[in-house]
Amino acid sequence: MIENWRLLEVSEDSVMENLAIEEALARSMSPASLPTIRVWVNPRGAVVGRYQELSAEVNLRFCEQNGIQIGRRFTGGGAVFHDEGTLNFTVVTPPQTGKSLNEFYTANSAIISNMLDKLGVRSQFVPPNLIKISGRKVSGSAAALSRDFAFWHASLLVSTNEQMLNEALQPSRLAATTRFIRSKWQPVITLQSVLSERLEIRDMKRGLIDSCETCFGVKLKKGQLSSDEELLAKTLRETKYSSSQWNLVGVSPSKILERNDGGTHTTIAV
Length: 270
Fold this sequence. Notes:
This protein is α/β, with parallel strands linked by helices. It has one domain (3-255): Bira Bifunctional Protein, Domain 2 (BirA Bifunctional Protein, domain 2). It is built from nine helices and eleven strands. It has helices at 15-28, 54-57, 60-65, 101-118, 162-168, 191-195, 201-216, 227-241, 244-249; strands at residues 3-8, 36-40, 45-48, 69-72, 80-82, 86-93, 124-126, 130-133, 136-145, 150-157, 218-222. It has an eight-stranded mixed β-sheet with strand order 7-8-9-10-6-2-1-11, with helices on both faces. The chain has a three-stranded mixed β-sheet with strand order 4-3-5, with helices on both faces. A hairpin with a 4-residue loop joins strand 9 (136-145) and strand 10. Helix 4 crosses helix 7 (201-216). The termini are far apart. Mean pLDDT is 89; it is low at 254-270.
């Protein structure tokens, strides 16, 4: 019998709201919960990892001048640029025993690789968490594992504005002395430029959903956030993700093994 998983196609018009939903999904997971797939799009924004120094990763002046929202996610990893041409994909399940972090990355990244194969695009998975086309990054991911949940999310550059990406994340190319986690600069490429045709995000969403069902052998049933998830996301947005302390300062890298409710999780840089 094919197992049913929940599919969420929930996108908000605020980077902070979308990031709050991500953490709410992880923190709401329990052994009795249905595994959840979220397919979503952010407005134009620069998002840094939990343990990064904002000024070392993001061109703050450029972002301010161009209306680029700035946020910090609850997972580790490097800085990324999102816009309406970037497709984000999240997998959150109860804890997965007996699976290493690298195995977790490999299994989830196969969803994107499989979709690219179906499009006739030759890609390369570069452990632990990159997918490249012709040596250029088209997708990167970050994860958090704990005793209560297994969480992974990735971005796929479908038709992302490459020029704006390179300007917004420009500091991450430069050498800097910092005790925080630094991004590993990667030249990027969009799927649209590879295929030399206009791509619609809705078509790529469908492709990822189909690929997920194939790779995991499940059936995705469209659902909604529960009332508890909505309440937690709202609370996180108001108390954490809208906070200058969180977005501008973040967390000391010495706390690389921690979670908000006192448990532990493992994160890795992109």
